[in-house]
Amino acid sequence: MAQPLTLCLTTEASEAQAEALAQALVERGLAACVALTPVRSLYRWRGALERSQEVQLLIKTNPSRLAELEVAVQQLHSYDTPEWIHWPAAASAAYGAWVAEGCS
Q1: Domain membership of residue 7 as a residue range
Q2: Can you tell me whether residue 31 is helix, strand or coil?
Q3: pTM for the whole thing?
């Protein structure tokens, strides 16, 4: 039977900052797992086109921890306006139970 979980997406400016953020979220029990992937981003910031190398964080959490997770990301993130996208997902029973256990 499928188990609910929430996926969240943000980016950090460097591998070190992404690793530090991911570790803090997992240590606090706000995320069961954070996958880090290097990405190249193009975006408009303060009227100018920007290009940067970033690290994308895909955060897996229990839906009940989403609000606390968002507060922590906003507090710990290196950006003034961090990317924050989240959506509901479903996982296998075993993986969903593991996520729930990791977010307690």
Answers
A1: 3-102
A2: coil
A3: 0.94
